[in-house]
């Protein structure tokens, strides 16, 4: 059996396209709602993820003076690839696997975006995520166009060997269609994928591009041994922490919510305890916040005095559930935890989790969108009318792509960050400290000297760069929100649109 691939043109744009037969959009959206929801289900009346993105985009575009045709050009995906290929399962039967890769914009290259493995993956979801990625990169000044990929499988149902076959076949098809490469399109992990899948993709790409000296940069989120970067694993969660820390220092946010400055003592509810939710909870706990509840697909946990994140994580890794964890009360219907009385709610799971059916019951004063598209347009309006502050996904969860950018730079430079300057920095500090000690006639202890003299390691530089990136992006968003008298999501989209418009105008692509 042969694999099949189809490429469709979404619009004429700034780069040559491959013309083939059109791909129809699947009707299933990637949500936690049933495939055929009951008429009374409030989620059923909500727009799909792609339409949610377009709604938020249009709202921000309405604040610009751009022509309608230009706005449409910036909104639609440039090109989408669909592939199908066979894989033999453990029962000896053949499964036909469907995968997608969408490239939303080539205003800057390469394109950048994760690859997710989920049985709910479909074309409109991938296009929505690719679209969001373009504006996320622009918000944090990462020089990439947006892309996204997905393979429609449940990774839990396949063995490690089968997942490797699926990943390598998908990567091979991306290679054949020029949908991957250090200067073309650089994937990264997403839901259902991680370092191992990225390592398989890198190895597959390198096998077919043996003369490409920069081939290591074809994918990010790799293990350190395969060219990854220290700090990538926790990057999105750490970015969430930096963003929340920054917004809770803004006077207008504190006035609107009635909260005190800083994260210490703030009650936090997190939906999703995967990579992002775990690391966000861990950094918030270290900052003095109390994570009082965490919701997962198979149940939640609550403790008004605060959960111990590390202990809870060990318990879940061992048992696969929060049930019987001694440090909290298990809640079977975990979705109800989103309505808990708290200061900060962090949806870090799937899209459309806050919708018209539950938005009015959300009590959180600050919504920090660690997931992509967790809030629908109607829910967004309800929350804003209630006085909640929403820190949007395209800003708050941009830590992952920021550190992926650092990894890409590391791979292109072929040297670990800090390798060239760490010892020089330490020697300079030592000389300065020796001089100060000789002048004051007092010697510091060994531990104090070591702390002061320490030169920046790779992880120090990565975290410093992420902190600077998130802080600047938050301040830009804040300024636009105040200048335009609008909410933070609209402000972030507005900033991104204007940055991309500037790129198009300077290159002339907008007028071709």
Structure description:
- The structure is a single chain.
- The chain is of the alpha/beta class and 512 residues long.
- 42% of the residues lie in helices and 14% in strands.
- The chain is built from 16 helices and 13 strands.
- It has helices at 49-61, 68-75, 123-139, 160-176, 195-208, 235-247, 251-257, 275-286, 309-319, 377-386, 393-396, 399-413, 422-440, 446-453, 458-484, 488-507, and strands at 4-9, 79-88, 94-103, 111-117, 145-151, 185-189, 267-271, 290-296, 299-302, 329-331, 344-347, 366-368, 389-391.
- It has a 7-stranded mixed beta sheet, with helices on both faces. A 6-stranded mixed beta sheet has the order 1-2-3-5-4-6.
- Helix 8 (275-286) links the parallel strand 7 and strand 8 (290-296).
- The two termini are 42 Å apart.
- Mean pLDDT is 90; it is low at 9-39.
Topology summary:
Elements: E1 4-9, H1 49-61, H2 68-75, E2 79-88, E3 94-103, E4 111-117, H3 123-139, E5 145-151, H4 160-176, E6 185-189, H5 195-208, H6 235-247, H7 251-257, E7 267-271, H8 275-286, E8 290-296, E9 299-302, H9 309-319, E10 329-331, E11 344-347, E12 366-368, H10 377-386, E13 389-391, H11 393-396, H12 399-413, H13 422-440, H14 446-453, H15 458-484, H16 488-507
Strand runs, count: 13
Termini separation comes to 42 Å
In spatial order, strands of the major sheet run 10-9-8-7-11-12-13
- Give me the number of helical elements: 16
Level of helix content? 40-55%
* Percent in strands: 5-15%
Work out the radius of gyration. 23 Å
Largest sheet: 7 strands, mixed
Note poorly predicted spans: 9-39
SSE order? EHHEEEHEHEHHHEHEEHEEEHEHHHHHH
Question: What average pLDDT do the residues reach?
Answer: 90
Note the overall shape: globular
């Amino acid at each position: 059996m042969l694999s099949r691939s189809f490429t469709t043109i979404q619009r004429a744009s700034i780069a040559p396209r491959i013309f083939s037969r059109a791909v129809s959009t699947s009707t299933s959206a990637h949500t936690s709602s049933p495939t055929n929801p009951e008429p009374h289900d409030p989620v059923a009346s909500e727009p799909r993820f792609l339409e949610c993105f377009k709604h938020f985009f249009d709202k921000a575009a309405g604040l610009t003076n751009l022509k309608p045709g230009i706005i449409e050009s910036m909104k639609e995906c440039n090109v989408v690839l669909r592939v199908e290929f066979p894989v033999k399962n453990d029962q000896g039967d053949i499964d036909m696997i469907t995968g997608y890769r969408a490239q939303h914009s080539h205003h800057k290259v390469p394109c950048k975006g994760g690859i997710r493995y989920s049985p709910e993956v479909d074309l409109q979801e991938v296009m929505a995520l690719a679209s969001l990625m373009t504006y996320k990169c622009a918000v944090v000044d990462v020089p990439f166009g947006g892309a996204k990929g997905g393979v429609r499988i449940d990774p839990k149902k396949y063995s490690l060997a089968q997942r490797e076959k699926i990943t390598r076949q998908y990567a091979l098809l991306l290679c054949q269609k020029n949908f991957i490469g250090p200067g073309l399109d650089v994937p990264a992990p997403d839901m259902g994928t991680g370092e191992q899948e990225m390592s398989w993709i890198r190895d597959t790409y390198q096998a077919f591009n043996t003369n490409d000296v920069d081939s290591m940069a074809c994918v990010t989120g790799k293990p350190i041994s395969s060219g990854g970067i220290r700090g990538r694993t926790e990057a999105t969660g750490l970015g969430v922490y930096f963003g929340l820390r920054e917004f809770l220092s803004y006077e207008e946010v504190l006035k609107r919510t009635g909260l005190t400055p800083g994260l210490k003592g703030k009650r936090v509810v997190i939906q999703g305890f995967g990579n992002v939710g775990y690391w966000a909870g861990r950094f918030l706990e270290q900052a003095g916040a109390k994570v009082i509840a965490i919701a997962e697909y198979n149940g939640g946990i609550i403790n008004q005095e605060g959960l111990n994140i590390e202990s809870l994580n060990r318990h879940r890794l061992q048992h696969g559930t929060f049930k019987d964890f001694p440090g909290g009360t298990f809640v079977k219907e975990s979705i109800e935890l989103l309505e808990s009385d708290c200061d900060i709610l962090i949806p870090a799971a799937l899209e459309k989790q806050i919708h018209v059916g539950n938005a009015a019951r959300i009590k959180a004063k600050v919504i920090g969108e660690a997931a992509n598209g967790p809030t629908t347009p109607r829910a967004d309006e309800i929350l804003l009318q209630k006085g909640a502050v929403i820190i949007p996904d395209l800003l708050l969860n941009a830590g992952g792509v920021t550190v992926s950018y650092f990894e890409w730079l590391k791979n292109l430079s072929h040297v670990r960050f800090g390798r060239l300057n760490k010892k020089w920095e330490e020697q300079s500090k030592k000389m300065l400290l020796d001089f100060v000690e000789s002048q004051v006639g007092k010697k510091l202890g060994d531990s104090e000297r070591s702390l002061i003299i320490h030169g920046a390691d790779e992880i120090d530089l990565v975290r410093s760069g992420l902190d600077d990136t998130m802080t600047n992006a938050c301040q830009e968003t804040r300024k636009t929100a105040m200048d335009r008298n609008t909410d933070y999501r609209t402000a972030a989209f507005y900033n991104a649109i204007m940055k991309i418009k500037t790129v198009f105008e300077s290159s002339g692509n907008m007028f071709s």
